[in-house]
Description:
Layout: H1 2-22, H2 29-50, H3 62-88, H4 91-98, H5 100-111, H6 119-137, H7 146-168, H8 174-196, H9 207-233, H10 236-243, H11 246-257, H12 264-283
Amino acid sequence: MWVIYTIAATLLLSLSTIFAKCGSRRADASVITTLRTLITTACMWAFILINNIDVRFPALNSKSFLYLIISGIVMTGALYCYHISLKSGDVTRVSALEKLSTVLLIIAAIFLYKQTSLYYIRIICTVLIAVGIIIVVTKKSRSNSQWLLFGILSAICTVVAYILATTNIYLGSNLLTLTFLMTISLILALIIMFIRGIQKGISRIPFSEILFIILSGLSAGAAWYCFRNAYYIGNTNTVIAITSMTVATSATLAALFLKEKVSWKSICGILFIITGILMYIFMI
Length: 284
């Protein structure tokens, strides 16, 4: 059963990206971030309530509360930058650039957490993933370079939010911690959208795009649910390895439904990324 959950999570994550791209033609990144985060967060809270998960939070000291707010702010920045990148860039290249967060996490594990065992393998994995990203993102395209800048910022913010959340915050379970962080991100996204006055233009966005954004949020929420089930009942390394294939499945779906051209250069880059990730998962 966990294999089915894992495959479903991988496909749903890729579909979420495709739907978000389809909904970004006229919608502003603030609108996409807010609506998508709203749907995903609602799915997470629904899962908690339906399964009667205890939502009593332990007492937070001022330091933990501060880290919680900062993590929420950084996560909002990561989501916002990601949607700007996706709006102006190809799905294949944006999906590959997402893996920069993996490179940064490996580096953080070495220098921040002193995880220096099998040092040379860690370095090889990092180089393979980085080379693969460079190969994919440097393919010829008509899109401007805005997607690259915001994609890099998204990866950096994602890693910072992860480090802050895993080392300084714990609300009784990882599920509650993530859900609460998503809730903070939703509140901040709403504030940003209203400050910019973008909500006034939502009525001018085609219904089809709004529907795609909603489907993107639902897909992300369903993917999170499938991944969590697979993670707890299946082989952890295999689950993570399969879900890391989103860079390949996203490129495939983009080629099928968005008519993006996937060159041999992109395929080689994706293979480098996947090889590096699999080596890290199964050899470290």
